[in-house]
């Protein structure tokens, strides 16, 4: 497994044109859940990290003020921009960025951060750095849909390729969320190796002992 961003970007550049052609039912369900849990309103600014071809960003854009899509793959970003143009969506902007360096415009106050099927390419230490960087942006909500382990890992499953993937356990991700200051409000299992976590930024006085589900 490599944690080199350029290596991952190059790999996705090669498959960008065909990326949307064949997604599993679990992937599609995770997209639906991330969009639902984002719960955006008309005034929100959303940051989509690992935006890929724009599945999440373009679904949210009609319902909020602004979506900032970031991805290290120029090929994936090209596909996302083309889709936005075809759909006539003007409130979304796609550009280069990573989890640890999202390149958020100075005029953007991020309300919601979303990410889908991207963070599992990082090792556990890098995941923590990424979640800390997201928390530093001050969003009210962070929704992560991804490959994550609810039980023992099974490399034979289609969601986990050891050569390029390094999924964390749900417990480790939950710890990283709470250590970064998020209150975990939802854990939704889609598959034994796929799920969605939702973290809310609670006031310091309410963070201790807040209810999760």
Overview of this structure, please?
By secondary structure, the protein is of the alpha/beta class. It has a single domain, classed as Vaccinia Virus protein VP39 (Rossmann fold, 3-Layer(aba) Sandwich). Helices cover 34% and strands 21% of the residues. The chain contains 7 helices and 7 strands. It has a 7-stranded mixed beta sheet, with helices on both faces. A hairpin with a 2-residue loop joins strand 6 (183-191) and strand 7 (194-200). Helix 5 (124-136) runs parallel beside helix 6. It is globular, with a radius of gyration of 16 Å. The N and C termini lie far apart (32 Å). Mean pLDDT is 88; it is low at 205-213.
What would the keywords be for this entry?
Rossmann fold, 7 strands, 34% helix, globular, disordered C terminus
Helices and strands, in N-to-C order? HHEHEHEEHEHEEH
* CATH architect. name: 3-Layer(aba) Sandwich
Reading off the top of the CATH hierarchy, the class is best stated as Alpha Beta
pLDDT < 50 stretches: 205-213
Q: Any idea what the CATH superfamily is called?
A: Vaccinia Virus protein VP39
Proportion in β-strands: 15-25%
CATH T-level topology: Rossmann fold
**Which structural category do the helix and sheet elements fall into?**
alpha/beta
- Assembly type of the shown chains? single chain
Number of domains: 1
Number of strands: 7
CA-based shape: globular
Biggest beta sheet attributes: 7 strands, mixed
Helical residues, percent? 25-40%
The average pLDDT is: 88
């Amino acid at each position: 497994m490599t944690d080199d961003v350029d290596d991952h970007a190059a790999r996705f550049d090669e498959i960008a044109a065909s990326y949307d052609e064949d997604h599993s039912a679990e992937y599609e369900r995770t997209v639906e859940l991330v969009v639902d849990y984002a719960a955006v309103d008309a005034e929100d600014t959303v940051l989509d990290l690992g935006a890929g071809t724009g599945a999440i960003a373009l679904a949210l854009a009609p319902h909020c003020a602004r979506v900032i899509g970031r991805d290290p793959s120029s090929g994936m970003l090209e596909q996302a921009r083309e889709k936005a143009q075809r759909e006539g969506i003007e409130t979304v902007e796609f550009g280069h960025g990573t989890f640890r360096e999202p390149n958020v415009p100075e005029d953007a106050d991020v309300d919601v951060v979303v990410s889908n099927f991207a963070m599992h390419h990082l090792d556990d230490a890098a995941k923590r750095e990424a979640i800390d960087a997201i928390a530093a942006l001050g969003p009210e909500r962070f929704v992560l849909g991804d490959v994550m382990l609810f039980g023992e890992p099974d490399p034979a499953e289609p969601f986990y390729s050891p050569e390029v993937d390094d999924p964390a356990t749900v417990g480790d991700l939950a710890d990283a969320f709470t250590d970064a200051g998020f209150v975990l409000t939802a854990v939704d299992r889609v598959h034994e190796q796929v799920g969605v976590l939702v973290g809310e930024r609670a006031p310091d006085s309410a963070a201790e002992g807040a209810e999760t589900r």
